[in-house]
Structure formats: structure tokens, C-alpha cells
Amino acid sequence: MSNIEYKASAATLDTAKPYNYNKRMEPAKVIRWTILFLGGVVMIMPIVFMMSTSFKWPHEIYNLKIIPDDPTIENYTYVLEDGRFYKWFVNSLIIATITTISAVIFDSLVGYTLCKFRFRGRMIVFVAILSTLMIPTEMLVIPWYLMAKDFGWLNSYWGIMFPGVMTAFGTFLMKQFFESVPDDFLEAARIDGLNEFQIWWTVAMPLVTPAISALAIFVFLGNWTAFIWPLIVTNDPELYTLPVGLTTFSVEQSVEWELIMTGAALATIPTLIVFLVFQRYIIRGVVMTGLKG
Amino acid sequence: MNWYRKLSIKQKQVVWAWSFLAIPVLFYTVIRFYPTFGAIVLSFQNWNLLGAKTWAGLENYQRLVADPVFWKVFSNTFIYLLLGTPISLVISFVIAYHLDKVNFLHATIRAMYFLPFMTSAVAMAWLWRWFYQPVPIGLFNNILSSLGISQFPFLNSTFWALPSVLAPAVWAGLGFQIIIFMAGLRSIPQSYYEAAQIDGVGPWTILREITLPLLKPTIVFLVVFSSIGFLRIFDQVFNMTTNDPGGPLNSTKPLVLMIYDTAFNAFNMGYAAAQTVVLFTILLIVSLLQLYVMRER
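ok -> C-alpha cells follow
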């Protein structure tokens, strides 16, 4: 498949433009639309209430109004003045960013090698990496913890990040997508005198950018919301990630629900903004990984 | 670099391939395979992190089989799976089936359903925990009381706590499943439907005879994907029951929470490792079932 065909096939996967059945208004269609729309409203209601409550005074959280009578940013001021949220936010951002870059580079390098090179042991490496998909993280956390303890990685960024710097899922995904890169392109680059690393980085990688962005979104979101491993490997509040910090903070507050909702909103807003901005790419990415992965 | 120039093109490729794979092979060996065997070996030992490791043989597994909490947890884990997977798949299929036929504001409605998927499970657990609080705090009970209906116990009831914990997990996962279902529906050739319409076949028959059979790969993928998710449920339970993890009376405790407790609160590493081996076995069976069901593809 050429690059253009490949892009076209990715475009047809986009569900933004449904089939045009017919344009007549029929009662059944209006009812279907209305029910679906109301269902959508129900789906976002919890998030709406979270946002709404984060702008309410403590005495107001008991009423069901979506727009507070007397909106306040007092909760945000309180939570941000605490200072820890800022730290947790930065920790999460650094950890998710570095892990994403690392996973994208290594997963695509390994996927490319397993797809485009012919050498003895290729299948063994591929099957071995693929088989790690069946090993649940929860089985590995105990040995990882012991390993981190022995190497002094507890309470460090590296300790939180090391299990995720490569992913078997991403490797498999990228291998699938490199299949669509024609060998002729790589051969032409070889004749031009590029070495194998340059061919991968300057010729092959730009041809699979949709797959790279899909993988990047998944890895970032996965690390941004990761909970059990950061919970285990850190006990220093300075190094908590946002989800672990939010748990600690919420347990402390216990009944101050408007503050808990403010913390929850702070942990949720960044990914919601990312979604609203990159909606098309994210949905396309979900579809591509769902169908290929 | 003299030796490199003497190599044939094919040999050079092999050198490049292994130099690209060197770090990843090391990573997968040290961070994935070695710990897997480590966990299995540890499951035959007793260790509290401080003293010496002692061999326990099958003791941890015998203890597991005799532990009533384990069986409670084991059944909870499967209730999460057996409630969560069918409910979320049926709802998401129905929505996807209809949303696929909608043009007006299609992308907006789709985004509304997908939005919860982008949230963090921890934040949403606390949000729903607030919803479930009794009057006058919790949103759900406030709505019920404003309608004149008596309070609902949600997280305080040993029967209703598990479904209450499950609800946000189902809610957050729907968007993903809807998108995958819609992509699956799109991949069915339009000509099949046209042929069926010419033959005058009703919509139910089309659904049963064309849509669902051709959607099999999508359905199998989603069943396995969501089953594995529900079998590994942790974040929601941990955060919604912090005052009594897995409570009330272990009624919401899933296997992963038991593993966490045994390893990092009781420091009973060998016993926890035996529990992880059980989890691994369950997930392995689910994955193998998928391969079996999809074998003819």
C-alpha cells in the first residue's frame, strides 16, 4: 500500500462522516436522535456536576443546581495554595511525557526491526515480546517492588517510570503499521547511502505518523491515570503522581466534598482539554488500535 | 570499523537488527520475564520482606484454598466480570448501532459518550463516591429524596456496594466500546444491506443474520478487552472504600486489592505472589479462549 492509499484507508476509519441514508425527517429518526442526545447528556452529567461543585461554597453542595447561586474560586485557591497539587501535577506531567517519548521511540524501533529486517531469531523475539502481553502488571508489581528496593529506585521518577519505558502492545501496533511502508522506499534510501538508523528515522517514521500519534495518546493517558504502581513505589508525598496525590488529599479532606471535587477536576481537566482539541485524532487512534491491535 | 565494511549487505542487516534490539531484549528479559518467574518462585516461599526467605512448597496455595476470604474475593472478581462485560457491551452496542445511523451533530454526540473514557479512574471514583453519600450530601440520594423516594444504601450495603463500585467503571469504558463497535459496523460492506433490503428482509433479521455475525471479530475483541479490564479492577474499589478497603465485609474486594493488601499491608510476599499466580492463570485462560474462538480467522 502506498502512503496515499494508507492515509485514505485511515480516513475511512474515521467515523466522523456517517453514511448518508436519506435526509427526510421522520418521527422515528427524530426520536432516535433525541434519545441518543439525552443519553449523551446523561454521560457527561457526572463530569458537569464535578465541575459545578468545584465552584460551590460548602453549604451549597447539597443542592442540585448545576450553576451555583454564588460561584467561587475559593476551592481552587485553597487547593492550589496547598502547593502539593502543583508538585503532583508536574510529577505526572514529567513522568507521562518521558515515558511516552521513550515508548514511542523504542516500540517503533523494535516494531520496525521485527517488520523490515530478516535475521535468525526474529520470530522468537517477536513471540517473546507478544507473550508478555499476557502477563498482568499486578503479577509483576511485587517483583518490581523488590527490584526497586534493592536498586534504591523507591521514591524516584525512574522507579515510577521503569516498568513502562517500552510496551509490548505498542511494539505489536507499530509492527503492524510498518507493514504498510513499501520496502522500495527503504531500498531507495539504502542506495542513497543512508544507514539503517537514518532510514528508520527519516524515511519510515514519517510514513506512520498517524500510528505514532495514536500510540503516544494511549501511552500518555495510561501513564497520566496510572495508579497501582505509583502507589506502591512511592511513599514520599513530594514524588506522588496526580492520582496517588488525589487519593491522599481526598482521604485527608474526608467530608469536604467541594475540595475533593476541585482536586478531581484538576486531575481531569488536562485530559479533557487534550480530548476536545485533538478529538478527531484521538478517535481515529482508538479505532486504528482497536482494529489492528 | 574495518570488520563492518567486510560484511555482506545481509550480514550488515543482522548487525543493525541486533543493535536495535539489544536494549529492548534486555528490558523484556529483566523487567518482564525475570519478574514473572520471580513471582512464581516467590509463590512457593514464605517471606515478610525482613527475615530470610524460607521454602514453603505448596503451603501458600493450600492456605489460599482454605481461606474463605479468598473465595469471597474470587467470586467478587467474577461478579465484576459477569456483570460488567455483558452490561457494558449491550449498552455500547445499542448506542453504536443507533449512533451509526445519525448524521445531525454526530461528532458532538459521539464526543459526549467518549468523554468519560478520558478521565482518571481515581478522580471518577471520588466523584461517584460523593454521588453515593447519604442525604443530605450525596447527589443520588438527594435526587431520590426530592422525588419523595426513600434513601438507597449504595456503598453501605453488602449487596449493592459491588454494583455501585462497578457503575463508574462501566460508565467510563462505554465510549471506547462504542467507537470500536461503530468502526466494526462501518467495516461491514454496504452491499450486504442493500441486497437484504431488495429481498425485503426486516431490520431484526438483518441485525441477526448480517450485522452480528459479521461483527464477530469486534465482539470477541471487546469481550476479551473488557473482561481483562474487569478482572483487574482496583482503582475504583480502592478509592471508593478507603475507610474499609474492599468493604463492607469484603463485599467489594477484588483479587487485585487482596494482592495489594497481602503484599503491602501484611507484607506476606509469598502468599501475595501465590494470589498473583492465580490472577495470571485466569487472565491466561481468557486470552487462550480468545485465540480459540478466533482460530479460523
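The beta strands of chain B are 45-46, 54-55.
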